[in-house]
Design goal:
The protein has helices at residues 17-32, 85-90, 103-107, 132-136, 165-169, 210-213, 266-270, 316-319; strands spanning 47-49, 72-74, 117-122, 128-131, 142-149, 154-164, 180-185, 205-209, 219-224, 227-228, 238-240, 253-259, 294-297, 306-308. With 332 residues, the protein is an alpha+beta fold. It has one domain (11-320): Oxidoreductase, molybdopterin-binding domain (Sulfite Oxidase, Chain A, domain 2, Alpha-Beta Complex), CATH 3.90.420.10. Strands 1, 2, 5, 6, 9, 10, 11, 13 and 14 form a nine-stranded mixed β-sheet that branches. A hairpin with a 4-residue loop joins strand 5 and strand 6 (154-164). It is globular, with a radius of gyration of 19 Å. Ligand MTE binds at residues 92-96, 150, 185, 204, 233, 246-247, 249-252. Residues 92-96, 150, 185, 204, 233, 246-247, 249-252 line the site of ligand MTE.
Length: 332
């Protein structure tokens, strides 16, 4: 089936940051006044849910023009303001479009995110190639404001839109041998000028343990700031794994592979000493070439704050239990 082509995002259509903040403030006030009920199921303890207006994600897979059909906010312990939209979408790493931070915003318009297929293979009962609309069908989109920490020691706070990856992976019925999940990005020289250069092994690939992939914080992401994901941020489908360095959050996913053994990952293949498989945010484990103890908060221009980095990017309460039997210094 074909998916309806989404219009490009014009500046006039983007939810202004001030509007976004006002909306959040209203939500907070409404919550405090008891006007909105908190969801209370297990991992959803921290979520606010608003009544669904239209849960047909097949016809309207993405929120359009700032309208979110189903809104839940993962409140976490975010104590920073959301990073301005212009920084989230103008300062990127997407090497398929160049290695400069402004290259993706400049060149990613050649990426064609519709129609889009995702191939599922390996240790699962329901393998095959699925249209994006089938991947999204029936899932409730949520807005989750997450910290995002790049290995290069800068960070953002972003209101992502998506749904738990686990909800999708379960549908493929992974077998008992599925210990890991590997993800691949599109690899199309026609659309991605950067893949003509061997700066990384293409296609870009990443991997998680099955427990990490199934963790309720791991978000399959289709939007940000109430909008369809801009190409430079990984349209139409990317991962966000908020307790890991940003390079684990692979963009524009076309292949998901369930595996028995630990998968290869592009950055680890490029330099295993610098980029481990786990890559959990850890201020106590420096990158061989720089400290990871602090991070620069994007959005403040010359006056960007530098703040201490936190273990697991501040999500230790949620994810530390995944690593109790691992030495984080050797399994970096
Ligand atoms: N995914 C692909 N396919 N190609 C990339 O170059 N860069 C990674 C990650 N996902 C990358 C990718 C890195 S290094 C970071 S920090 C984040 O995307 C950046 O995400 P953002 O541009 O949305 O901030």
């Amino acid at each position: 089936m074909l998916i309806k082509r989404q219009r490009g995002i014009k500046t006039s259509e983007i939810t202004a940051e001030s509007t976004f903040r006002k909306r959040r403030m209203l939500l907070k006030t409404a919550l405090a006044m008891g006007l909105i009920q908190s969801a209370n199921s297990s991992a959803q303890d921290n979520l606010i849910s608003l009544e669904a207006k239209d849960s047909d994600t097949r016809k309207k897979p993405f929120p359009e023009n700032g309208q979110i059909n189903n809104l839940k906010i993962w409140r976490g312990d975010i104590d920073l303001e959301s990073t301005p939209f212009e920084d989230v979408t103008g300062y990127n790493n997407y090497y398929e479009f160049g290695t400069g931070k402004t290259d993706p915003a400049r060149y990613a318009h050649t990426l064609e995110p519709h129609p889009w297929n995702v191939t599922v293979e390996g240790e699962a009962n329901k393998t095959g190639t699925y249209a994006l609309e089938d991947i999204l069908k029936g899932h409730v989109l949520e807005e989750r404001v997450y910290r995002f920490r790049c290995v290069e020691a800068w960070s953002m706070v972003v209101p992502w839109i998506g749904f738990p990856l686990a909800d999708l992976l379960r549908k493929f019925e992974p077998t008992s041998r599925a210990n890991y999940v590997q993800f691949f990005t599109l690899n199309e020289p026609e659309q991605m000028p950067g893949v003509r250069y061997p700066v990384l092994r293409w296609p870009y690939r990443e991997g998680l343990t099955i427990a990490e992939a199934m963790h309720p914080l791991t978000l399959l992401t289709v939007g940000l700031y109430g909008q369809v994901l801009p190409n430079q941020n990984g349209a139409p489908l990317r991962l966000i794994v908020p307790w890991k360095y940003g390079f684990k959050s692979i963009k524009s996913i076309v292949r998901i592979r369930f595996m028995q053994d630990q998968p290869q990952t592009s950055w680890n293949m490029a330099n295993a000493r610098e980029y481990g498989f786990y890559s959990n945010v850890n201020p106590g484990k420096d990158h061989p070439r720089w400290s990871q103890a602090t991070e620069r908060v994007l959005g403040g221009g010359l006056f960007s704050a530098r703040i201490p980095t936190r273990l697991f990017n501040g999500y230790a309460e949620e994810v530390a239990s995944l690593y109790t039997s691992l030495d984080l210094n050797t399994n970096y």
